[in-house]
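Thread: quick sanity check before group meeting

JM: Hey all, I'm pulling together slides for Thursday and realized we never actually wrote out the predicted structure for the chain we discussed last week. Dropping the sequence here so it's in one place. If anyone has concerns about the input, flag it before I start.
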Amino acid sequence: MSPSSPQGIPSSAQVLERIRQCAASVTRYPLDILTAEASLEDELGIDSVKLAEIAAVVAREFNLSADRLPRGAKARTLGAIAEGVASLLAESAPVVAPPVAVEATPRASVAARVQAAATPRPVEGAAMDLESKVRAVFARVTRYPEELLTPDADLEDELGIDSVKQAEVVAVLIKELGWEVAPKSSQRLRTLSAICEAIRSQQGAATVTSPPVEQAPVRAAPPSRGQPPLPFEGKVALVTGSGKGIGKVIAMRLASAGATVVVNSFHSRDDGERTAQEILAAGGKALHLWGSVAHEEHLERLFSAIGEQLGRLDFLVCNASNGLIGPFDRISPRDWDKAFRTCVTGTYECAMRARPLMARRGGGSIVTMSTSMSQRYMHDLGCQGVVKAAVESLTRYLAAELAPEGIRTNCVSAGPVHGELLGMFPDAPGRVARWEAATPGGQLCTADDVADVTELLLGSRTQRVNGAVWVVDGGLSGTVDGLLPSRPARTLGHDDRARLALDA
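JM (edit): ok, ran it. Output follows.
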């Protein structure tokens, strides 16, 4: 780290490093991907809400007003934010950063606090009192600095730890500290002190011990004697882009069939973590791994974690997608590049990395995801339609290349599906009405319909199906009405375009 200026103002390098630490504390991203040049939205998937959180932490770190920090185009990278902050600090001489010499003290820098919060703490035996143990669990699960986790701070109102995250903490406390009974929903344990008292009332602080932390996913209890095994019991499945939407439904379905599911998300990290928790709460087996299939370093981490923690992979569902929804003449080279990198290159890279994990177990099954409009015209779906046609071609090539190793590759080609995506289309209500009218039977498909076919293609009942594209659209693609616009389409401006980004 570069030395500070004589006036005590931190150097540009110091400002950047502390801002990287601020971003890590909010996003929980690895520091090595939080580079100065990385685009916060396009490359790192940090949306405007998360960016506002980072700005708030940066403002506190440098004792600046949040409304003075760089915004919009001036805050697209951490480097740009650091330049803006450095300028503000230079303008305001009394605002000085802590000198490097005291960064290792308890006040420390964000780096020290984040490191302390993110690193699991070793058990110190009887000398470590109950309150310290509970605080350590909270810090590890929430990634909050321990100095913020005071005994009487209100977990929700003061610390912003919502009920979902509190439930995660309670689950760890039950497992690691021997808390035998979870609190009733009517028993609001609003502070760390209240939680400690509840534990003491059950078993006494002296009897609470803390075994080592396990990195493997929480596993459901094995089926009782006489109960037939679930169809995917013992299998491991990776579903990319499974934080929400169709991917989430597929992940939940595979977990209910007995598989250990690796939930993957990028843009919607919180949704991905919630999906994994929902699977665990339902008695299934799940693990959430963050990362973009469009980034090679992310994929390297993702598949290394699967190999190290699970040792195998039986199913791969390539659901992560990215593509512009809007007029054909408004698709930019950058739009094409992002769509191909996610949908085509990302699918290929996932399949190639899954290959050795599946081959060592004698084979596996891959399902790619397409749209039935890859073979038909639909207004405003040009980018998706063209790119997904490439996915279908890639599916056939993967089927031929991987078949000698016992790996099947098929594709589910879905039509309009009720859910978040439909709302991205211009004039969505009118389009949905036309599509329903043009669909034999008058009903569009649901995410469960897509999951039905995906589950079937992964299973043993389709073991002779390879290189196939199964259309799931209720028959809509067999008609013409409803696919073409009912009136001349207006030319949409740049702000009218919508991007489909399913956890690329």
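AS: nice. The radius of gyration is 25 Å. The first helix runs from residue 12 to 27.
JM: adding both to the slides.
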